[in-house]
Write a structure and sequence with these properties.
With 166 residues, this protein is an alpha/beta fold. It contains four helices and six strands, in the order αβαβαβββαβ. The longest helix has 9 residues, at 79-87. It is elongated and about 85 Å long.
Length: 166
Amino acid sequence: MIYLHELAPNEGAKTRKRRVGRGIGGKGGKTAGRGTKGQGARDTIPVGFEGGQLPLTQRIPKLRGFDNPFRVSYTVVNLDQLAVLSERGVTTISPEALEAAGVIRKGALVKICARGALSAALEVSAHGFSKAARELIESAGGSVTEIPLPYKSGRRPSLGNALMNR
């Protein structure tokens, strides 16, 4: 069997890269394939440069999109992940327990969603719950506690600099 990383050209089949601009003795001498005079014959031109005309990326700002600076992003944990933890003997699920188990990163906001099934009664505390997940946890005999978000005003502080959203 041949693997992709074992493929190589035949001996002598690989030609050297042409080095231009090394005197007039061979191909690629004198002007080195750049023609005569002009901007292209001299220094490098930035990618997207249109000769001083406003570049396309600046002419069409609608294609840049929009990032909401106040968006609250959660790390989603599903019921099937909670079921695996309950099999290991964990009965109280909290962001700290999920962090210790390696399910989420440190300081992440947790939202419990309803993928999978739950048979054990668990005490689950998180920053958010989907409606279906809340019902499934309670129907399995567990309890749900919603942790308030860690922001003073209820919404997260703005991302960006001091001049944003003024």
